[in-house]
Every structure is written in C-alpha cells, then in structure tokens.
Amino acid sequence: MLIKSYDFDWTVVSSNFPRLLEGLWMTIEISVIVIVLSMILAVPVALLRMSNIEVIRWVAQIYIEIFRCTPLLVQLFWVYYAMPTLTGITIPGLVSAVIALTLNLTAFMAEAYRSGFQAVPIEQIEAGKMLRLTSWQRTRHIIIPQALRQQLPVIMSLDISLFKDTALVSTIAVADLMFTANKIASESYRALEILTVAALMYFVIAFPVSLILSKIERNMMQGDIRGGGKKKGKSLAAQMVPGAKVQVTP
Length: 250
Description:
Layout: H1 11-49, H2 54-68, H3 72-87, H4 93-119, H5 122-130, H6 135-150, H7 152-165, H8 177-188, H9 191-226, H10 236-239
C-alpha cells in the first residue's frame, strides 16, 4: 500500500504560535484554579466520608462515586447545558469548565486524602489528645501534613491527569489550547502541523512533572525500606529517568 506524500508547512505554526501560547496559558490557568480549589474542598469531603454519622458518610460517598463513575465529558456537558435549565441562570463556558473539573477532581482527591488520613498511626492521634489538642488542631497539625506527604504521588498523578483532561473544555467553546489548535487547523487546513505542536506543548508541561513524580516515588520507597538511612545515590537526572531501578541496601 502506498503512503500518500505530504508537504509539511511549518510556517503556519510560527505565524500562529502566539495564539497557541494564549490557548496554553488558558489551559494552565484553568488547571491551577481547579487544582487549588480541589485540594481545599477535598479535605472536608474526605472528613465527611469518614464521619461516624451514617447519613453524612453516605452523602459524601454518593457524591464521590457519582463523579468517579461517570465520564468527565458528560459531567462537563451537564454543568454547561443542564444546570442552566434547573437554575435558570446561564453559566459561561469558563465557569462551567471550572465547576465540572473541580467537582470531578475533588471526588478523586477526597479518596486519596481519606486513604492518607486513615494511614496516620493512631498513636500519634492519641498523643495529640493527651496534649489537649482540639479535633481541628489534631487534623491540621498531625493528620493532614502526614496524609499529604504520604499521598503526594497520588495527588500529583491526579493533577497531571487533570491538566490533560482540560482538553475536553474545548467542546464547550472555552478558548484553551485544544480549542485554539482546532480553530487554527480548520482555518489553515494544516491539522497535522498544528495538532502535532499542540500535543508537544501538552507534553512539555506534563512530562517534567511526571519525572518529578517518579523521583518522589523512588525517594519515598527508598526512605521506607532503608528506614530513613542515607546513602549516596545516583545523580538527580539519573534518578528521574523513567523505569530506573531503585537500589536499596539490605
């Protein structure tokens, strides 16, 4: 089978690169807002999920399961198209995107927090009680810091996924990187060049973060197995190479 020859024209990329950067900035802006809101809102949701009051616990679990078990695109469309029908208020695309993505990420983040909260040794919580710390003080100074440290790889992984999932907001006409790339591709009839560059822009942002995540996971694994012992290891660049083996001293 013959492959059709294609004449690349990268000038369309250079002439439209400022527009792509504007779209990338919008993507980063949405990602940062959603991540910050989700990290804050996930704390009370996780605590409600662990409540001793059954009704409260079930309400939190229902919310989490709804957003974990339905497609993000459906959630996005529901907030943008269906919510105005219920409220009578027209919600702009950007606001709808932030609401839907925040609700989705909060559900996943709450489960990560809950796992971290429950992993905190009970002895430390009891020690906080003996020091006459209030419930909020124990949560703030003992439980949350340890849970965040333990669940940091999971949290960062969720954040990377969120950054990539922002491409879906282009379906409701939010001028993010994907929407801008599609618009330029339809105007120039050069989808191959434009979408390739758009993919590379996502990659340039997400890949370094995934390398950092990989290094954090290795360091945590080494620290857990060696009991916090120090050993001169590989260089930072070598540790960040995906798939590198963790050397542990028995």
